[in-house]
């Protein structure tokens, strides 16, 4: 555990204690067991190269009997550009604390995505894209992620593009509908699509053809 900030960390959960003691050294061990990390320090310890990015900061005003109340709603994404990604949003009266809260929640929401070569135009058998077409939704926003040939890049709007980059997906076609100007719903719909991809099972010769890659396998 190279991060000096984690030296003073006192775990509050069983998984946290196992991570602190070195019994668990891979985030996949936790996620694939069906459990969820409940402490952000677990993510910091197991995924030290996790990057953070703000997707949007919105000003929300609400009328209350005591007067007008203003809050900042922040949407963020975290990822290691290698199969681990998390998205979340948080609100608060100040921007700084809202950003920190959103990043912490995004870390606790991380998932392990699947990558592969599901494009019939490509067939290179390298995990540069998604293995198959998937869709996700949140509110009125719907997004479909379709495998693209190697070298195309991310044919997507800014919000899904940033999330896909943090997830480590290199080539994808996208199709969207709904009020995509709503950053939170757009981000969560994209995150939902990636999560749906992780839940699908592929067997037989098709699984061999699309070459689903493991987390940690570099894109060439």
TrEMBL record:
An example of a GO molecular function for this protein is: rRNA binding
Q: Where is the S5 DRBM domain?
A: 50-113
* UniProt keywords, alphabetically: Ribonucleoprotein, Ribosomal protein, RNA-binding, rRNA-binding
Gene Ontology terms describing biological process: translation
Q: What superkingdom does the record give?
A: Archaea
- Span-the-membrane segments of this chain are none
Name a single GO cellular component.
cytosolic small ribosomal subunit
User: Any notes on this protein's domains?
Assistant: The N-terminal domain interacts with the head of the 30S subunit; the C-terminal domain interacts with the body and contacts protein S4. The interaction surface between S4 and S5 is involved in control of translational fidelity.
Main function: With S4 and S12 plays an important role in translational accuracy.
Among HAMAP family, the record links this protein to:
Ribosomal_uS5_A
Subunit notes for this chain? Part of the 30S ribosomal subunit. Contacts protein S4.
State the family it belongs to: Belongs to the universal ribosomal protein uS5 family.
The molecule here is called: Small ribosomal subunit protein uS5
Source species: candidate division MSBL1 archaeon SCGC-AAA261C02
